[in-house]
Amino acid sequence: MKLFRAQRNLYILFFSMFLLWFILSQYTTMSINHEALINQAKNASEFAANLLCDEADKENRSGNELEI
User: Taking the model in full, what pTM does it have?
Assistant: First the structure.
């Protein structure tokens, strides 16, 4: 009976360790992907803002040239 309990406890221990490792690896992967997505969104919004500012500057310059 002691051998059965020792083997059972060993299986439970290794399964728990595997489950913990799996959850932590998934969490770190998701965390890294989340940071990458946040950086990509920031870069895209900055690029769009710069693009809109450039278009507004071009319109202002062309408007000023017509008045002269």
Answer: 0.53
